[in-house]
């Protein structure tokens, strides 16, 4: 189950569970759409994988045991541990390589 982290790891922008501006990689590293595209160029600075839109978890339980009411989003904020230079170097190296070939 996705953790739904509450913030962008780069700029610390709030990313509530209902936003369509959250992006994630396969390890659930979380970024805002702006940082994912303009800063990271679609490359996760932690794993080198691609970054995609994060699904929106329904507020209500349309099926028993589902939705935010049963599985709330995380409130633990995360921040990227790599320097601006390190992130740029990896993004520049991998941005033109298809995700399946990284």
TrEMBL record:
Pfam families: DUF1272. It comes from the Bacteria. Residues 57-102 are annotated as: Disordered. Residues 82-102 have a biased composition (Basic and acidic residues). This is DUF1272 domain-containing protein. It comes from Falsiruegeria litorea.
């Amino acid at each position: 189950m996705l953790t739904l982290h509450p913030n962008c790891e780069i700029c610390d922008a709030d990313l509530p569970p209902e936003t369509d501006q959250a992006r994630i990689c396969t390890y659930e590293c979380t970024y805002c759409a702006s940082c994912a595209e303009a800063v990271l160029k679609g490359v996760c600075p932690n794993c080198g994988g691609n970054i995609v839109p994060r699904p929106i978890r329904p507020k209500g339980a349309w099926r028993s045991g589902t939705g935010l009411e049963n599985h709330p989003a995380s409130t633990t904020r995360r921040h990227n541990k790599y320097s601006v230079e390190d992130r740029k170097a990896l993004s520049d190296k991998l941005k033109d390589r298809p995700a399946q070939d990284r």
